[in-house]
Amino acid sequence: MSSDAQREYRIALTVRYRNASKKMKGRILDEYCATTHYNRKHAIWLLGRPALRSKHPGRPKVYSAVAVIQLRQLWAKMNGMNSKGMVAALPIWLRFYDCPAPIKKELLSISAATIDRKLKPYRSTLKRNRRSGTRPGQMLRHQIPIKPFDQKITKPGFIEGDTVAHCGGSLAGDFAWSLTCTDILSGWTEVRAMWNKNATSAVGCIREIEKCLPFSIYAFNSDNGSEFINHELVKYFGPDGEKERLHQLMTRSREYKKNDNCHVEQKNWTHVRQLFGYRRVDRPELVDLMNDIYRVEQSLLQNFFIPQIKLKTKCRVGSKYKRTYTEPKTPYQILQESDQISEQTKTNLQNLYESLNPFSLKASLDQKLQRFFKSFTQISERKAA
Questions:
Q1: From CA 161, how far away is CA 206, in angstroms rounded?
Q2: Among residues 338, 328, 332, which one has the least CA distance to residue 350?
Q3: What is the value of pTM for the model shown?
Q4: Where are the alpha helices (DSSP H) in the chain?
Q5: Which of 34, 93, 200, 233 has the most crowded Cβ, counting Cβ within 10 A?
Q6: Contact status, residue 165 vs residue 155, Cβ threshold 8 Å
Q7: What are phi and psi of 247, to 5 degrees?
Q8: Where do the domains of the chain lie?
Q9: How much is the average pLDDT of 161-167?
Q10: What does CATH list as the number for 158-384?
Q11: Distance CA 143, CA 156 (A)
């Protein structure tokens, strides 16, 4: 007898068993044990336990099915944001989102743990390929001091820089690179693509990035790659003969210590890999399309509408570490609260923020990505032919 048949049989006997006399209960038990081959004590427990509940026990559901569907759609439009960042971003994004007011009220009251629970079946795990394109630069290493940003940062302008290889798994030949620069205090991040990794291209990207930053670069820290440890970048950050200024402005991290540049390493994933993946970009004409995406939609979306969480304190308690984090805030919000930014700059940022719509930026970003991957596929097909 199948399990479903046994369950139906047990339900049919349960009512008879409870209303029967003692003698009749014995006969029902004899019949039930002979049919199902259960132990008699187990059969008494099955037939005598409380009736099956008609609904799931516990508290009633707080969030409607419509709200959960809207939550999934929002999560997809918000680039798969983490739950704590999503809680902080929902009040900003929902001002531009078209859905009924009761649903918005439900979404604004949802917690980070509930978001994780509701989205768990729909989140996909991404396999991260780990391939490093960093090659040590031997020039000027004795002039550029090893000094990671481990001190307390109180003003914007402390920049970490790193490069990402769009090599597709092979570092042979020519291909595109992305240079990421992120501010430690605010998390403001700018990315630019370049063809091949050399000193001239890196300095050109940094020069363009500095023009787009709402603050001046006070210090620049990088790894020991040859694209950073070279005369071109030294001339850019400090003219020849001004070694004291160079020591204050440009530093480098320790070899094989990725945590020295942990802020920019994280942005390499959220700002570069989530957009273009691990494909090999080996056509120079695609670099302009990448920069168009980096310069407009990606920069505005990440810096104005995507909250970030930063580690505040970390202490060891027994065999574990206890960490506390800051409240999720966007880089724009952090700069608006900083007393190191001029009022004119804050006004300019606020005017720009009020003119933006995150859903329009996301739609434009998706269109440009489709155009990029379409061009990428066409170039690959022509190359294969």
A1: 9
A2: 332
A3: 0.72
A4: 3-19, 22-36, 40-48, 65-77, 83-93, 101-109, 112-119, 199-212, 231-237, 243-249, 262-267, 274-276, 285-293, 299-305, 331-337, 343-354, 358-384
A5: 233
A6: no
A7: -65, -35
A8: 3-48, 65-122, 158-384
A9: 89
A10: 3.30.420.10
A11: 25
- For residue 212, what are its two tokens? 């787009």
Compute the distance between CA of residue 280 and CA of residue 291 in angstroms, rounded to an integer: 16
Tokens read off for 109: 């009251």
Tokens of 336: 């608006």
Q: Which of 189, 190, 181, 185 is nearest to 223 (CA)?
A: 181
Largest CA-CA distance found in the chain, in angstroms, rounded: 108
Which are the contacts of 32, defined by CB distance < 8 A and separation ≥ 6? 9, 10, 13, 38, 43, 47
Q: Which single residue is written with the structure tokens 């970030």?
A: 308
pLDDT in tens, 335-354: 999 998 999 999 999 999 99
Q: What is the pLDDT of residues 194-240, one digit of tens each?
A: 998 888 888 899 999 999 999 988 888 887 777 787 778 878 876 55
* Closest C-alpha to 304, from 188, 182, 183: 188
Q: How confident is the model at residue 128 (pLDDT cuts 50, 70, 90)?
A: very low
Q: What is the CA radius of gyration of the chain?
A: 30
* Per-residue three-class SS string for 210-245: HHHCCCCCCEEEECCECCCCCHHHHHHHCCCCCHHH
Residue 252, SS3? strand
pLDDT per residue over 9-50, tens digit each? 888 888 888 888 888 989 888 988 888 888 989 888 888 876
Classify 43 as helix, strand or coil: helix
Tokens 């709402």 identify what position? 214
Name which of 324, 345, 320, 321 is nearest 335 in CA terms: 345
Contact at 8 Å (CB) between 201 and 178?
A: no
- CA contacts within 13 A on the Cβ side of 340: 15
Residues 6+ apart with CB under 8 A from 160: 149, 181, 182, 184, 220, 221, 222, 261, 263, 264
- Give DSSP secondary structure letters for 275-336: HHTT-B---THHHHHHHHHIIIIIHHHHHHH--B--EEEEEEETTEEEEEEPPPB-HHHHHH
Three-state DSSP class for residue 158: strand
